[in-house]
Amino acid sequence: MQWQSVKRLGATVVLVGDAYDETQAYAKQRSIDEGRVFVPPFDNTEVIAGQGTVGMELVRQHPGPLHAVFVPVGGGGLIAGIAAYMKQVRPEGKIIGVEPTDANAMALSLHHGRRVSLQQVGGFADGVAVKVVGEETFQLCRELLDGVVLVNRDAICAAIKV
């Protein structure tokens, strides 16, 4: 588990909730109670801009045409940042989101034209298991994404093996 590595490095680890959304609510409230700053992991313009540097690295490392870039989607920060950068410098390239079938909040939100909140999410791909995508990330993705593909657990396992 990722949290065990963080704990080994000396951090205090508090496990709250079954999915990211419950954890975020706890962290926001705790930051208020303790007078600390909450740094959101995806729904923040500065965080999204920082994630855009991944797109910059892709362009630097691949100076030729990029036909498509496939990006995992959780709350949408990584793909929003990459898409914002890529559509400026390589507008011909397609930006495709990849979501687990049991955590497909972005795909459903784009389909319905508004943010959709899932009742539950699968925990297998825990890094992208959010019940609702960010407000800012949704607006950017609605404007910039060329599509989203859904993958099941078997496809994720097969990709990990490769």
Automatic annotation (TrEMBL):
Signal peptide: none
Cross-referenced InterPro entries: Ser/Thr_Dehydratase, TrpB-like_PALP, TrpB-like_PALP_sf
Domain of life: Eukaryota
Transmembrane segments: none
Sequence ranges assigned to domain Tryptophan synthase beta chain-like PALP in this UniProt record: 5-161
Cofactor: pyridoxal 5'-phosphate
SUPFAM superfamilies: Tryptophan synthase beta subunit-like PLP-dependent enzymes
Keywords: Lyase, Pyridoxal phosphate
Protein known as: Tryptophan synthase beta chain-like PALP domain-containing protein
Taxonomic lineage: Eukaryota, Viridiplantae, Streptophyta, Embryophyta, Bryophyta
